[in-house]
Amino acid sequence: MVYNELRKDYLLNRWVVIATERSRRPTDFAKQKTEQAESSSCPLCVGNEHMTPPAVMIYLKQNCEIEKSMDHDDARPKNWLVRVIPNLFPAFAPPKEQTNQAQIIKSESYGCAIGHHEVLVESPNHDEDPADAELPQLTLLINAYIDRLRELSAKPYVQYVSIFRNYGREAGASLSHAHSQMIATPIVPRIPAEEMAASKKFYEQHQKCVFCDIIEKETKSPRLVLENSHFVVFAPYASVHPLEFWILPKKHASNILGLGKAEIEAFAGTLKTSLKALKDLLNDPPYNYGFHLSINRDARDYYHWHLEVYPRLSIWAGFEKNTGMYINTVKPETSAAELRKTIHA
Amino acid sequence: MVYNELRKDYLLNRWVVIATERSRRPTDFAKQKTEQAESSSCPLCVGNEHMTPPAVMIYLKQNCEIEKSMDHDDARPKNWLVRVIPNLFPAFAPPKEQTNQAQIIKSESYGCAIGHHEVLVESPNHDEDPADAELPQLTLLINAYIDRLRELSAKPYVQYVSIFRNYGREAGASLSHAHSQMIATPIVPRIPAEEMAASKKFYEQHQKCVFCDIIEKETKSPRLVLENSHFVVFAPYASVHPLEFWILPKKHASNILGLGKAEIEAFAGTLKTSLKALKDLLNDPPYNYGFHLSINRDARDYYHWHLEVYPRLSIWAGFEKNTGMYINTVKPETSAAELRKTIHA
User: Fold this and answer.
1) So what's the pLDDT on residue A98?
2) CB contacts, 8 Å: B239 with chain A
């Protein structure tokens, strides 16, 4: 296998993976129709485990216990609750032999897209999206995020791990079976890098975490969507998308590796409540969500993990794409009010 | 009228206009269907001039001459060739009275979205997109870009002018009548700002323009799409989109204000040829294009204007949106080869 190329723009700190294996020829786009898999032929459904690469991690139902395991080529259990598999067309692929960090960093602007690209099948049920999932199942998913993050972030060539979900075809989901994705990269991408630099600077100037500061202000603002003992949800002040909201843990932590059982359950509940409100409010719209976190030990004090949810209600067109400046047609205060009303209806 | 809010993200140098007048309520998105205007009721078609605000500039057909004029409330000529009108729901709106720069810059993170937002109706013919337009008509459009850029960039509160086009509903065009847009902003947005900073740095280190350097290299690369006496077209090394291409003038200039007659005609021809190749190759795909330029006199030596064309063939999903890192499924070298082949077919 040949690695995908990782290229950096001439001027911008903007990286791109040239992942040609993910499509055949440019003309394939001409009449592109994303076919939604039928449940019977869905490669992520129970019974079709042979249609995917072997799972790197599975949670198995064993009587009343949940057991962590993995596939072996000859044995692919069907009694799984969550199943994590390598992406069949990975944007980032693991190194063949031990590659040291220095080599990867040296390759820089003409490097190899070394890393990992995994698919987390969230449930045996084809349609179980987070808004409607049972809380124990959603809690398992969060646990899977944590388990995989622990493993991937320990690799010497991994600098960042993006955990995200695309919901709905218009949001980029090519398979409709409930799934999240995880991409581990050999560089810290632009947005988290900028966030880390800015929060570090704030910490040096004020001796406190900027996100802790934001939480304090937003819980008293009209942009608050909900608050419980562990989390706050609000529409950020400069929301880029209509109905955008962020979920932040009240307890300072730079990533999700140290979450306790109660926090994990609270996070599952908070995620479900917020996404259910979005679903009810806007008749099941497409959305993307992504974790923002740091796996850099230095960032422990100044960075604060959170989840950002972007409903896909508008199109980024010529202006947004050429300027990096966005037009949002809904006030965050209005978004928050509508979501609050739906939650309490 | 109340100005839209201009807000800056907590951490990123990422700006957003809160433009609530562009939509009514968040729930309007729920079953959003962008209706394409029928030609008979199209507000941009000849005969419907009263359906838009008065034109700030029109090119009129007067016998064999083209005359520059504008609408007056009581007189709206119908014999126009290009018509420039204020956007009915502007993202940026002009100040009521003379506002000085210092006041605007001071307002910074909680400022007003002062500026301009104009629609350039490219032709009296509803369907005349640049790939199929007659060259004299397309030349008029480029002249209109220049005329409007000259006027808008002279305003004391304008720091940047974005000229762009959305082609096709999936690319964000809500009206199908051939039109471009122009947005003048009171700050330099992130992408041009980063480009200018990086090209300035390159100039200080190498005493030459980085884009002149890129042109020299790319004309000898497999990413070249076409070259004529005035322009080069190539698929950039780190293309973010499949089939992306850029058009650069060989003659160094930081913006289009100084273009001569021959260059304007050559640019119209180059634009038409490239977009026609894209249209033929991929069965009329949606796309966005945008000018990258500088109106800052200081940038004259180090910045080099160009046009970037982004076909809309893939979806930016959770990974791209949360990391600012992109996955492109077509090698730029392949994109260039396919476009070259189509041009020479």
Assistant:
1) 58
2) 16
Nearest CB neighbour to B166, from listed A27, A310, A317: A317
pLDDT for residue B328: 84
For residue B181, pLDDT beyond 70:
yes
CA of A284, closest CA in chain B: separation in Å? 8
Question: A289 forms bridges with which residues in the sheet?
Answer: A165, A309
* Set of chain B residues whose Cβ sits within 8 Å of the Cβ of A206: none
Query: At residue B45, does pLDDT exceed 50?
Result: yes
Q: Tell me the average pLDDT across A101-109.
A: 48
- The arithmetic mean of pLDDT across residues B15-39, rounded, is 50
Q: Which residues of A touch B190 (CB under 8 A)?
A: 323-325
Q: Which domains does chain A have, with CATH numbers?
A: 5-22+42-189 (3.30.428.10), 191-344 (3.30.428.10)
CA distance B251 to chain A (A): 19
Residue B66: which residues within 8 A CB-CB, separation 6 or more? B59, B60, B81, B140
Spatial contact of B314 and B241, defined as CB atoms under 8 Å apart: yes
Q: Compute the nearest-CA separation of B332 from chain A (Å).
A: 8
**Token couple for B319:** 């990974």
Name the pLDDT band for A96 (thresholds 50, 70, 90): confident
Instruction: Give the lowest-confidence range in A330-334, B44-48, B233-237.
Output: A330-334
Across the A:B interface, residue pairs with CB atoms under 8 Å apart total: 273
| Cβ <8 Å between B288 and A160 | no
From the candidates B179, B230, B292, B306, which is the catalytic residue?
B179
Q: Do B183 and A319 touch (CB under 8 A)?
A: yes
- From residue A162, alpha-carbon distances to A153, A210, B325, B341 in Å are 10, 21, 11, 38
Which residue in A13, A30, A291 is closest to B282 by CB distance? A30
b/e map of B225-241 (b: 16 or more CB within 10 Å)? bbeeebbbbbbbbbbbb
Reported as a single tens digit per residue, the pLDDT across A19-36 is 555 444 444 544 344 445
Is A179 part of the annotated catalytic residue set? yes
Q: Considering CB atoms only, which of B18, B25, B328 is closest to A18?
A: B328
Closest CA to A332 of A218, A255, A254, A199: A218
> pLDDT tens digit string along B246-291?
999 999 999 999 999 999 999 999 999 999 999 999 989 999 999 9
The CA radius of gyration of chain A, in Å to the nearest whole number, is 20
Q: What is the mean pLDDT of residues B96-116?
A: 61
Closest by CA position to B193, among listed B160, B224, B223, B167: B160
Looking at residue A226, its amino acid is L
Chain A nearest C-alpha distance from B125 (Å): 22
